């Protein structure tokens, strides 16, 4: 019986058989590498969509309806009716004016003090870490505790501030009921809480400015003030812009300090609404008067005002850069 020789597999077929799984594995690896970054950032977009974008759109839709907190199932379309009503509401304009005044009284001194404090902490001195912790302590204090302490300090009859004023012959000030005194008192709380935080932000930015610039300016005979103006401030320009933006947003949303400072006044912001901010007015309309649609309109107006202010500031900055660039080109600055 003749043995039939076994048929051998050609080498090319073996190579092709091994290459096919290897090619599929390479393609799968390439797909994973291509889609992996999207998988890593997907949780952020999911959370942002659920807790950021959806509430924003839902609030905008609610602002176009008459919705009462006691009957959320009944939505009555009013279009721009809530916005028109707010435009004719004197309490809205009062809250807007109070927000602007308190924002200016708190933001400007706060950032100036923070810049000064950061410059002092940037100097090499003993116990710098201790002073930095002390500067950050007010930020770590809860808004409730800070406001209650300041309410005692600004008490009309037994407050420490009025006692200090009486020692120099100034009559006691009614800090809670005075139209300007109450705004100054609320602003003082904001300044105390946020100055240290902004000072540490400025301090971190100051330490990124190259020390060679200070040394070169000192060799040229520049004083310490001149080095601060011509070296430190230009290096801090992006950081200063950041703190201005964040402080402006915080001033627009101011809520806890005026609410707790008014003691029994609640969301009205004083007996005459003398320190009622937009945040308090929104809370009063939505959760006291139960007008959820009107409160949604206030929230969207606050957002639109911030976008308008920042858009105008960005446009002015772009135009200023364009003029400076044009002036630097020979023959274009005339």
TrEMBL record:
Principal subcellular localisation of the protein: membrane
Lipid metabolism among keywords: no
Keywords: Cell membrane, Membrane, Transmembrane, Transmembrane helix, Transport
Subcellular location(s) of the protein: Cell membrane
Gene3D superfamilies, alphabetized: MetI-like (1.10.3720.10)
Topology class, membrane: Multi-pass membrane protein
Name used for this protein in its record: Sugar ABC transporter permease
The species this protein was found in: Streptomyces roseicoloratus
């Amino acid at each position: 019986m003749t043995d039939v020789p076994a048929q051998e597999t050609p080498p090319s077929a073996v190579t092709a058989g091994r290459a096919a799984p290897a090619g599929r594995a390479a393609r799968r690896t390439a797909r994973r590498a291509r889609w992996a970054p999207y998988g890593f950032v997907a949780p952020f977009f999911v959370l942002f969509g659920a807790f950021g974008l959806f509430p924003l759109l839902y609030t905008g839709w609610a602002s176009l309806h008459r919705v009462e907190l006691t009957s959320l199932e009944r939505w009555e379309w009013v279009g721009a009716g809530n916005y028109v009503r707010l435009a004719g509401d004197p309490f809205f304009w009062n809250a807007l004016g109070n927000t602007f005044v308190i924002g200016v009284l708190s933001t400007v001194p706060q950032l100036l003090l923070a810049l000064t404090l950061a410059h002092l902490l940037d100097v090499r001195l003993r116990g710098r870490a201790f002073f930095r912790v002390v500067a950050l302590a007010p930020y770590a204090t809860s808004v409730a505790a800070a406001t209650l302490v300041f309410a005692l300090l600004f008490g009309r009859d037994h407050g420490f501030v009025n006692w200090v004023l009486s020692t120099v012959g100034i009559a006691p000030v009614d800090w809670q009921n005075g139209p300007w005194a109450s705004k100054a008192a609320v602003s003082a709380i904001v300044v105390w809480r946020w100055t240290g935080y902004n000072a540490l932000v400025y301090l971190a930015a100051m330490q990124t400015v190259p020390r060679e610039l200070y040394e070169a300016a000192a060799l040229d005979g520049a004083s310490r003030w001149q080095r601060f103006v011509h070296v430190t401030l230009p290096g801090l320009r992006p950081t200063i812009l950041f703190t201005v933006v964040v402080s402006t947003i915080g001033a627009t949303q101011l809520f806890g300090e005026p609410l707790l400072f008014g003691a029994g006044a609640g969301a009205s912001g004083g007996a005459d609404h003398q320190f009622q901010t937009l945040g308090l007015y929104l809370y009063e309309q939505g959760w006291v008067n139960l007008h959820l649609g009107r409160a949604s309109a206030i929230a969207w107006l606050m957002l639109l005002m911030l976008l308008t202010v920042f858009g105008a500031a960005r446009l002015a900055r772009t135009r200023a850069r364009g003029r400076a660039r044009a002036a630097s080109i020979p023959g274009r600055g005339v």
